[in-house]
């Protein structure tokens, strides 16, 4: 708040540049290890350049954004906007450090991933596609064109709106972080995030076993999947997920290796007749 | 219907633009160009049979209408579905003389889509893995303070990953057309171990993604509880995601208030309370 | 079967007693006299065919068994159903020689009931609107301190609203009997815009009532959340109202305790805590 | 508590008079604008006359009851009883003012409306009717007579009980209001009220669209209602309700005008084929 | 097939080991020896027809697969099912020459099992009631400080209860075999008042058990609320017990935090707060 | 904590003896009045003998265990372990009295009964049986043998593990009891317990009425059970349960008499046609 007169303020052009980099580049250099980290850094670059004329300061500032980042790129735009604003506050001498910025990013990225994946991938896109598919029955291009126009407009202006919301909200985001209310808000968002992630898992993922035991008379006497469902619907899905979580978090296995392990497990499962997707051409 | 080299190359280009880690951004690349409905339009234009393209796209889109890719895991790859699957399905349907709008054509399209979509996940992970190379360049740049190079790391180099794992496979597979699919189907029968494993893995991969999200959310053991409750609401009660979100908001409000009432020393900033200050002064 | 002027007038009187804003009080007027089951008994007695009256009442009652009128909005008006609908249905059934206990009679009764019930909502809102006149008298009386006049405002003047919008319509419509219904059915066919709109509005009106209740409950935006959760429990999970209430009680207990733990200074009044008093004295 | 000796106490006759006025008159002069306000004033009149011999005091006291009031008249009886008691306390010099009384009325009327509409209109009446209908099959008057007797007894003595419960509870109702516990109890009742109102909306109101799009082959390719249900079951119902709420609360449109607007919307909806109740004689 | 006295006595011995208040402990006695599947094995060994024994056991086990005995109430007694029901069913099936693995044999076994299982509850309560005698010995011993005698009270004397109400009934009923069952079925027809009452009571008894549990849990009226919510989740929404447990954990976490935030004076013991100590010293 | 040097410590043999007594004898002298009280005393005897060489002290110490006890014997093993440890602490002069011990037992036994009955009797046993039944189709003894081995191992080592967990946890169990966190944990366990007991009731108990009223035409016009279900599914079950609770808790009727009363009620119900299990041979 002190010396607001000589304070640095990001101009709209810089902000738009940062936003466009996120819009186009959040996932371009995606890897299982760092995910959106480079997309994020690329988006913050214009901001840092503007705020810190001094090259050394820029290099120091970018460090905060080298931490792992991943979220739903659509809704996540708001986080980029918030950091733009926090960075501006930091450049103006407010008591914000890289840690504070990263706390915010870490606290929000998970919940927003859950909520975003559910609302965008799981709800909004299917609705738009559902409507458009109707229009394209019979081979008409109408539906496809409608989808392209409607979605691109929604996505572009929606994300742009979120970016600037985040930027303007940023100042509060600081008080949002420090103190009790910040903790409370993050806790609340965390609850929503984890429940939604649970919902996403149950809605879109379904690991099942095909194991059936047959009696002498050829009748099935044990349908393992049914038995598991009567214990807890979706049990295998939860178990596989928690197993992956445990590998990555407690055993520090990387995502790639975890996936390869799943390949091995699947292979063995297929061989012993535990798994069988049951598809045919 | 045949596919020329130039057509195959155009398909390859679109393939680069639209996977999950795509060159045209998530909104335009993955969510627009990548969706089979749009892919049908584009393939129809490129191959010169709009109606057939759209019909194939519609059939495949129905299968993948709600594709979520949590935590960067995909169980079916839209690039392969839209720019390998659709062209090949078009060729197959045209060569068999099927009615493009009929049921058999749609079924053929779906089975080709499922096949290449799951096989295509291999391409997806290949791109993401190759990107580790460019990212290693990036870390060096950050370390050496060459920040300007980050732009190339994020927007430039990954084209190479895509050239190798999107452009080339798409171009070759579509050019060699029906032969390729037939070869693939023979090599990898659905009831063979390879395809069974592939589809089983495909069904499990999103678990890794969810696990990545969990790693971001879970701090202590009790944090698993809301996750499991959300799972239970959807799996046991069939609540959809919006309804789960509504219910979760109630718990969020409660948790917010519980946190705010903790300690009792620092009042809600909007309602400053007299006596608190006194306590502060005591210390 | 015909209806004499004197019978029609008696029906009109009962109509005054039983709408939602009725002259015989909610419990006796609306919930008792107004229900088609009771209306069937009364109409049967007035028109001299008890069995037929009851049969019509039972048929109509089944349709409106759980009529809620949240926030003063009605989607079907019991006065019209019971004291216009039942008499007309009785006349129609008797004149067509139908078996009063048979299925066709019941169906005829139901369709007449639905028709006049929804049309009757217009009468309901007319009464409520005319009451604004007597209420304006009342405000003047309060302002001038003439409190004794309030009794007339509440119990006297509204008879005029009912004379005009309950008594007269009922008397005329029942007297002119079958002609009126036929005329109405011809004038307002079910697949015409007028009736479609009427029924659509009828289905929506309770939303206004719920909105009025919400206005009384909602203080801040987050207050919408329990409302939506209650809606979700009933709409998505099919919980009935008693079950929703049971679940809501758990959240109520939690909220109570959260509120009680806030601030932490003023303990629960039933458990006085030593230090609190000290604090109080500090101020 | 001080000078309880010379305190004014309402006698049973006055209380019964007040109760009967409510029992018979809660809705007689109902309008969409003031709803049960006049019924309430009429019920409080005997109380005020008894407590304040002085006419000026009566006129002053009635002011508290000119505020908007609406609730479920059955359960709401308890509120009338509580105000009788609070008014008595005020007449005896306790520190209760009109505002306190109105806070209580405003805090309770909404939740009690929700709970009452659900329990009385939505549960109790349907059960009684269901039983009675059975007895009247075949045109027998038995069921109707049973219903009349059973319900009128329940209603009269039930409400009377509530009135006097409220009156005796009234003293606590004061401590109920001031301080923390009061806030907590009102919050708790509010939660129940809003969840129940949500349940009432979902159970008894159902706004649906009939919009269907047909493909070239005559098959439905878009059933909008199904699509909406897959987003959020009951979406249209919620939207219409929140729209009405917004009109009345934020735009200060009166209930009557809101209803007229719904007529217009329905008309347009019917004309464009969005709405169609689909009934026939 | 007949049953000799020695075989009948062996069945009687196993009957002592396996009721709910059994001499072989809950895990080994009730949950293992008592289950019809295991009972079928044992009866098969004793009576010399393993296959038939197992087949009967499997049929009866299916009926009682999830027998809960909350608060010491049983609605069907495993001792009677396994060691009276299975032998009698075996005799009946063998004498009628039925295929042991066929449907009729299974149905016969089930009906015999249900019959003796419910009748057997009388035996169960008889044992538990007779144990009151030994317990009265125990109280005297505690009072007189003769603690060593408690071992006999818990492990010795109850054998007498079982000798009378497990051993003898089992021995006699199985020895007199089919005659006994037929006599029972004639004496107590399913549509007679006695059996109807017995089964009705059997269905209600667990309520007493749940009530005993409630007595242990419920402190104040609001404690009924989570109980009713749990009931609602299972009864109205069909959630199974694991899912109910998951949901309850969320409320448990919330309640934990609410309790921890109460008072605000004593911080969570893991996060000691300075001022607390000061406050403590003030008092 | 003071004089830990000369502190008494239970040796493994004593603990095992106590555990085995519980494992074999928790229910042997069961009655509806004292339930597992004697089983509990028998299990504590070895502990008390070891800790208090003096006979008088033993007699004094046993008093704490004369109070009513009942829980799920499997999971409840953890409580026995905890009391072993608390008793040891008490023998070492820590400020723990019989009351503290009983508070803990009373606070945990209910919830653990609910959770245990649901997880062991309602979930684990049915699963094991389900799997084993499959193996025994066709009259093979395999399933039965598998069940015996699997279950006895799980039960024995599971309970043993719980006993020693409880014993080691015991020290914390003290701080667990006193102070705020103890209250909070017991509250939390209580919530789980009561919800689970509610779930057990709904899942495994189902009191229904067979009352149907028939019209002149022979058609059912009142199916009371359906009507009750539409009010609140499982209503009769809840009512009977709460009635039993009320008898036992408020009217101090013993469990035996409550059961006899149910017999009378059932008899009358059967006679008037309210109850009818509807079974046949
Ligand atoms: O799950 C969060 C996020 O993870 C990755 O970044 C991608 O798979 C995105 O599509 C997804 O939204
Ligand atoms: O909803 C509360 C209340 O509002 C109005 O007063 C009437 O419609 C009543 O019937 C209703 O109970
Ligand atoms: O319900 C707790 C408990 O009560 C009694 O002790 C027995 O019926 C046990 O089987 C049961 O686990």
Automatic annotation (TrEMBL), chains A, D, F:
<dbReference type="InterPro" id="IPR050303">
    <property type="entry name" value="GatZ_KbaZ_carbometab"/>
</dbReference>
<dbReference type="GO" id="GO:0009401">
    <property type="term" value="P:phosphoenolpyruvate-dependent sugar phosphotransferase system"/>
</dbReference>
<dbReference type="GO" id="GO:0005886">
    <property type="term" value="C:plasma membrane"/>
</dbReference>
<feature type="transmembrane region" description="Helical">
    <location>
        <begin position="119"/>
        <end position="138"/>
    </location>
</feature>
<feature type="transmembrane region" description="Helical">
    <location>
        <begin position="184"/>
        <end position="205"/>
    </location>
</feature>
<keyword id="KW-0472">Membrane</keyword>
<protein>
    <submittedName>
        <fullName>PTS system mannose fructose N-acetylgalactosamine-specific transporter subunit IID</fullName>
    </submittedName>
</protein>
<keyword id="KW-1133">Transmembrane helix</keyword>
<feature type="transmembrane region" description="Helical">
    <location>
        <begin position="255"/>
        <end position="275"/>
    </location>
</feature>
<feature type="transmembrane region" description="Helical">
    <location>
        <begin position="230"/>
        <end position="248"/>
    </location>
</feature>
<dbReference type="Pfam" id="PF03613">
    <property type="entry name" value="EIID-AGA"/>
</dbReference>
<keyword id="KW-0812">Transmembrane</keyword>
<feature type="transmembrane region" description="Helical">
    <location>
        <begin position="144"/>
        <end position="163"/>
    </location>
</feature>
<dbReference type="InterPro" id="IPR004704">
    <property type="entry name" value="PTS_IID_man"/>
</dbReference>
């Amino acid at each position: 708040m002190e010396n607001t007169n000589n304070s640095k303020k990001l101009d709209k052009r810089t902000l738009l540049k940062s936003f466009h980099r996120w819009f186009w580049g959040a996932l371009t250099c995606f890897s299982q290890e760092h995910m959106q980290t480079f997309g994020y850094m690329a988006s913050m670059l214009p901001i840092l350049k503007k705020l810190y004329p001094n090259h050394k300061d820029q290099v120091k500032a970018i460090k905060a954004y080298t931490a792992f980042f991943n979220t739903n790129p659509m809704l996540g735009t708001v986080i980029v906007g918030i950091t733009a604003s926090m960075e501006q506050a930091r450049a103006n001498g407010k008591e914000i450090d890289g840690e504070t910025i990263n706390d915010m990013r870490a606290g929000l990225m998970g919940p927003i991933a859950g909520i975003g994946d559910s609302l965008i991938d799981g709800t909004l896109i299917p609705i738009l596609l559902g409507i458009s598919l109707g229009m394209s029955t019979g081979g008409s291009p109408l539906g496809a064109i409608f989808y392209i126009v409607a979605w691109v407009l929604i996505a572009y202006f929606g994300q742009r709106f979120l970016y600037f919301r985040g930027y303007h909200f940023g100042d509060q985001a600081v008080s949002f972080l420090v103190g009790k209310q910040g903790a409370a808000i993050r806790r609340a968002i965390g609850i929503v995030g984890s429940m939604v992630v649970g919902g996403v898992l149950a809605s879109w993922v379904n690991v099942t076993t095909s194991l059936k035991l047959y009696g002498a008379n050829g009748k099935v006497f044990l349908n393992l999947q049914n038995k598991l469902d009567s214990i807890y619907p979706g049990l295998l899905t939860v178990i596989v997920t928690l197993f992956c979580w445990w590998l990555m978090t407690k055993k520090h296995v990387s995502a790639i290796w975890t996936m390869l392990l799943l390949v091995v497990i699947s292979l063995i499962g297929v061989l012993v007749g535990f798994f069988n997707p049951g598809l045919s051409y | 219907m045949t596919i020329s080299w130039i057509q195959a190359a155009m398909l390859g280009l679109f393939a680069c633009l639209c996977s999950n880690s795509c060159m045209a951004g998530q909104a335009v690349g993955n969510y627009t160009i990548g969706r089979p409905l749009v892919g049908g339009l584009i393939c129809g234009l490129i191959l010169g049979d709009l109606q057939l393209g759209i019909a194939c796209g519609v059939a495949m889109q129905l299968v993948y209408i709600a594709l979520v890719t949590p935590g960067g895991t995909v169980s079916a790859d839209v690039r392969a579905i839209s720019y390998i699957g659709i062209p090949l399905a078009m060729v197959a349907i045209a060569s068999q003389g099927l009615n493009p709008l009929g049921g058999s054509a749609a079924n053929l399209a779906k089975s080709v889509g499922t096949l290449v979509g799951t096989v295509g996940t291999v391409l997806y992970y290949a791109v993401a893995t190759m990107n580790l190379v460019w990212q290693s360049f990036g870390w060096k740049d950050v370390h050496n303070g060459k920040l300007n190079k980050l732009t190339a790391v994020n927007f430039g180099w990954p084209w190479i990953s895509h050239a190798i794992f999107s452009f080339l496979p798409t171009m070759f597979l579509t050019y060699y057309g029906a032969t390729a699919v037939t070869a693939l189907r023979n090599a990898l029968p659905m009831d063979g171990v390879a395809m069974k494993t592939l589809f089983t893995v495909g069904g499990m991969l999103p678990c890794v993604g969810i696990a990545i999200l969990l790693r971001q959310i879970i701090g202590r053991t009790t944090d698993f509880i809301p996750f499991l409750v959300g799972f239970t609401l959807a799996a046991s009660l069939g609540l959809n995601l919006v309804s789960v979100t509504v219910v979760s908001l109630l718990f969020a409000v409660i948790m917010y208030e519980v946190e705010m009432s903790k300690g009792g020393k620092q009042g809600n900033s909007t309602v400053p309370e007299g006596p608190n200050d006194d306590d502060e002064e005591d210390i």
